[in-house]
Amino acid sequence: MLSLESLKQIDVELAKYPAERSRSAIMAALRIAQTELGWLSTDTIAYVADYVKIPATQAMEVATFYGMYNLKPVGKYVFEVCQTGPCMISGSDSIIDYIKQVLSIQPGETTKDGLFTLKTVECLGACGYAPMMQLGKHYREHLTKEKVDAIIDECKKTAGVLN
Predict the structure, then answer these.
(1) Which class in CATH covers the domain with range 77-159?
(2) Could you give the C-alpha distances from 44 to 18, 55, 110, in angstroms and in order?
(3) How far, in Å, are 38, 77, 139, 151, 152 from residue 158 at the CA level?
(4) Mean pLDDT within 65-88
(5) How far apart are CA 117 and CA 75, in angstroms?
(6) Is the peptide bond before 131 cis (omega within 30 degrees of 0)?
(7) Confidence of residue 163 (pLDDT cuts 50, 70, 90)
(8) Cβ atoms of residues 82 and 123 within 8 Å
(9) Average model confidence (pLDDT) for the chain?
(10) At 135, phi and psi to the nearest 5?
(11) In angstroms, how far apart are the furthest CA atoms of the chain?
(12) Disulfide: which of 5, 20, 60, 109 matches 105 by Cβ 3.0-4.6 Å?
C-alpha cells in the first residue's frame, strides 16, 4: 500500500522510540502515508496501524482527532483558513465566505476540477498575522479578498490552468 521509501521513513520514526512505545510514532507515520497518498482511507489507517503495531482503532482515534489528516480526497491546493478568535476578529469569517463564493464550495469540499479544497481549522499559532491560512507548508497572512484572488491565480498558474 505504501512505497518502500515511505516505509523507510516510518522506520526512522519508529527508531526514535523503544519497541514498547511504538505507538508514539503514529502521528508521523500517518503524515508520511498522507504525503504519499494525498489522504488517509480507513484501509490506509489500518495498514499504518498494523505496520506500527498498534490497534487500528487507536490510529483511527488519532486520525479523526487532528485536523491535519485528510480523511477523504482533497484538492491539489488545500486552503486551511484559521477560524479561531483572533482571526475571526480580524475578518477570517469574511475571508472564508469570500473563498466559498469564488470557488463555489463549502468548508470540507473540493472544487469540481480537483484543484482546491477549503478547510476551516483551529489556531495555526500566527495570531499576529490574522486573518491567515495555511497553504501546503506555507502560511498566507493578513488576508484580503485581493490577496485571496492572487493566491488562487498563483495556484492555477502553477497547475497550468488558464483563467
Answers:
(1) alpha beta
(2) 24, 13, 21
(3) 18, 10, 17, 10, 10
(4) 93
(5) 5
(6) yes
(7) low
(8) yes
(9) 94
(10) -130, 105
(11) 54
(12) 109
Residue 71 has pLDDT above 80, yes or no: yes
- Which three-class secondary structure string do you get for 52-75? HCCCHHHHHHHHHHCCCCCCCCCC
Beta strands in the chain (DSSP E): 77-82, 116-121, 133-135, 138-140
d(C-alpha 53, C-alpha 20), whole Å? 10
pLDDT greater than 80 at residue 102: yes
Say which amino acid occupies 47. Answer: Y
Residue-range domain boundaries for the chain: 4-65, 77-159
Q: Which CATH architecture has domain 4-65?
A: Orthogonal Bundle (1.10)
pLDDT > 70: percent of the chain: 99
